[in-house]
Specification:
81 residues; mainly alpha; 2 helices; 0% strand; elongated
Length: 81
């Protein structure tokens, strides 16, 4: 296992995955809100639904960042330098 590879790259992997997921999910929410019947999110009609949607977007982005760290851990485990 290459611990140095994991130690040097974990923040880069996490930031990249978090930001990519944040922008993709935000774009999906924006497109979904323009439809008459939303597919992925509830129609934002009041403040509580807005906060629930924002928290869903944020926590999904954090989850994608964690998945990228698991992927990096597997890659550093397989890398035998």
């Amino acid at each position: 296992m290459n611990i140095r590879f994991f130690g040097e790259n974990w923040s880069k992997y996490y930031k990249r995955s978090f930001l990519l997921a944040f922008f993709v999910i935000t774009f999906m929410c924006f497109v979904d809100q323009t439809l008459n019947t939303p597919i992925f999110f509830s129609k934002i009609e009041n403040l509580s639904v807005l906060f629930f949607t924002l928290s869903t977007i944020f926590f999904a982005s954090v989850f994608c960042g964690m998945l990228s760290l698991i992927y990096l851990f597997i890659i550093s485990f397989l890398n035998k330098k």
